[in-house]
């Protein structure tokens, strides 16, 4: 049986439309599958922390929380290799090499030596740092505004001028400040130099002692307590990890310690105007999430400064030292009892 030409044209047209609809349907299904696959993608990251102490521990926890807030959760779509080098350079090297060999999607480096070690081993894997004072000074980035490499992150640069102002309000009769820091910590040296310049501009004298390991702290402290009125300690990782050791020398000598960050106050110092490291970690985790999302690359992500600063005062320490904290400082401070 033969079709009329008009009917044949209509039939062919309907066939073509049906075929296109089938193709479009297949394409839509393929696209949906791809989107679903993308949304379910799992990532592996490595976290390397230089040493165990309260500030770095807090930054570590905050980093994981910051990722979780953005939908990257360990055990679901995220695998995290948690490592602590315990202040040992050979451990740092081995951990960094393992991350590179495992081809992790991103590395979080907590503290300057950790970031330097990892950055020396890979120029391809994105590295997000935290608890690092001066990225440029540590030669981790071309500039803080435009890193240009595979490293970015958050800085824990202290408000040093405000900290020395706090010191002078708490100890208005102080004439000489003592400070101890690890000579191999570039960022500690940066902080001490800035502190020294500002303190001397205020008419204060600064006595400096350097250490190489925790074992040097006692001797360094004993060399200073007879020559100074008060101590200032930067966010030095060796000092921060051994504040009770330092306080065991300074407290009997009735020498207060103004610290670089709140966890050092909780561990035996007197006061600080400093950074909340947990919140700094969250801020860092948000930056890492932007990289995993594909929204940004380290090379063009400016180094971010800490956004949350606060006064922290150890009232128990103040009482044991016989120091009266001015009411104007206490009213807005976080108090350690």
SSE map:
Blueprint lengths: L4 H35 L3 E7 L4 H16 L8 E7 L4 H14 L3 E5 L1 H10 L5 E6 L18 E5 L4 H11 L5 E7 L3 H16 L3 E7 L5 H9 L4 E4 L3 H5 L1 H8 L6 E3 L2 H5 L4 E5 L1 H17 L10 E2 L3 E6 H7 L5 H4 L3 E3 L1
Parallel strand pairs: 1-2, 1-3, 3-4, 4-5, 5-11, 6-7, 6-8, 8-9, 12-13
Antiparallel strand pairs: 10-12
Descriptors for this entry?
337 residues, alpha/beta, Rossmann fold, four-stranded parallel β-sheet, 47% helix, elongated, disordered N terminus
**What is the average per-residue confidence, as pLDDT, rounded to a whole number?**
90
Question: What is the CATH topology assignment of the largest domain?
Answer: Rossmann fold
What structural category do the secondary elements indicate? alpha/beta
Number of helices: 13
Oligomeric nature of the chains: single chain
Rg value:
28 Å
Q: Let me know the largest β-sheet.
A: 6 strands, parallel
Question: Gap between N and C termini, in Å?
Answer: 100 Å
Q: From the 3D coordinates, which CATH architecture of the largest domain would you assign?
A: 3-Layer(aba) Sandwich
Total individual domains: 2
Helical content stands at 40-55%
Unreliable residue runs: 1-39
- The arrangement of helices and strands along the chain is HEHEHEHEEHEHEHEHHEHEHEEHHE
């Amino acid at each position: 049986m033969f079709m009329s030409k008009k009917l044949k044209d209509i039939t062919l047209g309907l066939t073509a439309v049906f075929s296109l609809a089938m193709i479009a349907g297949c394409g839509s299904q393929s696209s949906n599958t791809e989107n679903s696959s993308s949304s379910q993608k799992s990532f592996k990251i490595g976290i390397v922390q230089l040493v165990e102490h309260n500030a770095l521990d807090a930054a570590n926890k905050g980093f994981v929380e910051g990722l979780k807030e953005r939908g990257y959760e360990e055990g679901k779509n995220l695998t995290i290799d948690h490592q602590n080098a315990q202040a040992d350079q050979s451990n740092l090297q081995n951990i960094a090499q393992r991350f590179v060999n495992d081809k992790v999607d991103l590395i979080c480096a907590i503290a300057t030596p950790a970031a330097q070690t990892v950055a020396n081993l890979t120029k391809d894997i994105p590295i997000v740092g935290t608890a690092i004072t001066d990225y440029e000074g540590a030669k981790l980035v071309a500039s803080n505004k435009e890193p240009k490499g595979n490293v970015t992150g958050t800085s824990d640069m202290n408000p040093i001028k405000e900290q020395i102002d706090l010191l002078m309000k708490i100890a208005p009769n102080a004439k000489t400040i003592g400070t101890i820091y690890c000579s191999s910590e570039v960022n500690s040296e940066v902080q001490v130099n800035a502190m020294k310049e500002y303190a001397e501009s205020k008419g204060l004298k600064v006595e400096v002692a350097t250490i190489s390991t925790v074992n040097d702290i006692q001797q360094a402290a004993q060399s200073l307590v007879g020559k100074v009125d008060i101590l200032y300690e930067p966010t030095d990782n060796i000092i921060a990890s051994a504040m009770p050791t330092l306080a065991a020398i300074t407290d009997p000598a009735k020498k207060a310690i103004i610290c670089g960050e709140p966890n050092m106050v909780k561990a035996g110092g007197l006061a600080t105007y400093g950074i909340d490291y947990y919140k700094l970690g969250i801020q860092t985790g948000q930056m890492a999430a932007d990289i995993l999302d594909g929204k940004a690359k380290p090379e063009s992500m400016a180094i971010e400064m800490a956004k949350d600063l606060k006064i922290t005062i150890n009232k128990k320490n103040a009482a044991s030292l016989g120091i009266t904290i001015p009411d104007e400082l206490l009213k807005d401070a976080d108090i350690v009892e």
